[in-house]
Amino acid sequence: xxxxxxxxxxxxxxxxxxxxxxxxxxxxxxxxxxxxxxxxxxxxxxxxxxxxxxxxxxxxxxxxxxxxxxxxxxxxxxxxxxxxxxxxxxxxxxxxxxxxxxxxxxxxxxxxxxxxxxxxxxxxxxxxxxxxxxxxxxxxxxxxxxxxxxxxxxxxxxxxxxxxxxxxxxxxxxxxxxxxxxxxxxxxxxxxxxxxxxxxxxxxxxxxxxxxxxxxxxxxxxxxxxxxxxxxxxxxxxxxxxxxxxxxxxxxxxxxxxxxxxxxxxxxxxxxxxxxxxxxxxxxxxxxxxxxxxxxxxxxxxxxxxxxxxxxxxxxxxxxxxxxxxxxxxxxxxxxxxxxxxxxxxxxxxxxxxxxxxxxxxx
Length: 363
Known about the structure:
Layout: E1 12-18, H1 35-43, E2 47-53, H2 58-66, E3 70-74, E4 78-79, E5 82-83, H3 85-96, E6 100-102, H4 105-111, H5 115-119, E7 129-132, H6 135-149, E8 151-156, E9 165-172, E10 184-189, E11 198-202, H7 203-210, H8 212-217, E12 220-224, E13 233-239, E14 242-249, H9 260-263, E15 270-272, H10 280-298, E16 309-316, E17 325-332, H11 344-362
Parallel strand pairs: 1-2, 1-3, 3-6
Antiparallel strand pairs: 4-5, 7-12, 8-9, 8-12, 9-10, 10-11, 13-14, 13-16, 14-15, 16-17
Helix pairs in contact: 1-11, 2-3
């Protein structure tokens, strides 16, 4: 725990992440990325408390959280074989007792799962998207979607890092109306380290394989494949509804393995500030149009939005005037790290404001 003299009167904010089996609270390499945020909070007179979460330590974690004004959470939906089921229940409990939680599990369910792609498909960032809530619905309707385009992208509702995201391409089908169980498909998984990450199977085998995703994530989302994947994707970082930075990434999982783009050396994400010229069209659309529409659609206020979150955009077809269009790929709210360094001060200010409001509500 980090203490500043007299800071308790100004507020106490926890930063929570999942234990990884190593030594002290800041031995986790990912957690070290939060040191600048801790420093920014301390400069403003706020106590910061690292909280390392584990399912078998839930009682002690509860006691620590109830002594805070707020907590910022960095825990992936699925990590090291564990999901957030018990943690989410704990965060709902402490949030119900007046501790500000970001991102709150109820907000995650609204905007932090792949279902948001379906619910906001009519917003300017949307594309042809469908939602399957159970296995029978998926088996009945997905073959029709695959027949329509010949290639679709399937995503489990709750996952991260490409887990449960597949590019499905129809190879051949003897049926005239829609593909049947014997139809051949080519599958490619977004997590390239998985085995097998790529291969062919029957459609029936694919449908069987996808059943497991309903158990944890509750649903599957199906989207049109975007042809400009070789141009990479743009990650737009926000504090509440304000854009605070960008990152450009070059995911390779769904590229044609024989393409020039697939042969390029791997590139890490490149972060830049909110005023980066090449992203100003996207920034205006996000701040002025898309996020306000999302809030209305999902029944969220600005203060409900996570203190730090990001929206990943793929490039859609260019307009007749040559301007880029953008298609929402996913929204991340559970464990947004790393984020642009320039976002740190704004994140600290937002966390303090929300935590103090929560504290006033308890007093």
